[in-house]
Predict the structure.
Amino acid sequence: MVWLPANMTGRDQINPTQEPTMSFSTRPLICSSLACLSILASMPVVAQDRSGLYVSAYGGSSSLASTSLTESRTSLSTLTGKGSFGSGSGLGGAFGYRYGNGWAAELAWDYRSHDIKRIGGTPVDGDFASTTAFINGYYRFEKLGIVRPFVGAGLGYVTEMDMDLNRDGSEQEYSRRGGVAVQAIVGGEMELSEHWSLSADLRRSEMGSGSFKSSSAGATLSGKPKYQPTSVNLGLTYRFK
């Protein structure tokens, strides 16, 4: 039997048939991203921007906000409380098109992984990772010196999310698929040549909550832990024309 905190009902337990849903906290991020893009749409055309296809790759460090969860196994004591995370990393790639007026759109794939250190006051080993497909939109401003600032927003789909937990010599995996993801992006780009450019950006993402399935019987992960990473990336872009 899964032990539940006093303020948690049976509806918070794992339901393998339940579809992932968007958490209420994603709405401010979506609204602010859409509002930002609406304002930018009214801006004048940016000079010195070329249209054409491009590909990019990026990677860097990532941090993950703490989240409440309960992990239970038949052979071990139940852990409940805040999940605390250590260092993290991420990488990704994109294929897109610049329209020559400051705007760009792309299809992107992101991977992020973060070490998990504690649940409540109990040390644990493991990681919390995700892969997500995004449709991103960008607006690039006029250059400030050699740097062109940009902002962006993305709407995505969580292709996979999993948490691996190792405690008392016993390793357990929990995973789920599906759910909405949103992100906001701000950064700058510097041209290296006619085709190549270097970029740096900050990305704040949020994935919709959902139920996790266990890889074995007798183990549950409840509380629908949130996944809200913030990453700092360096990227390299190749423009085809």
About this structure: The chain has one domain: 49-190+200-239.
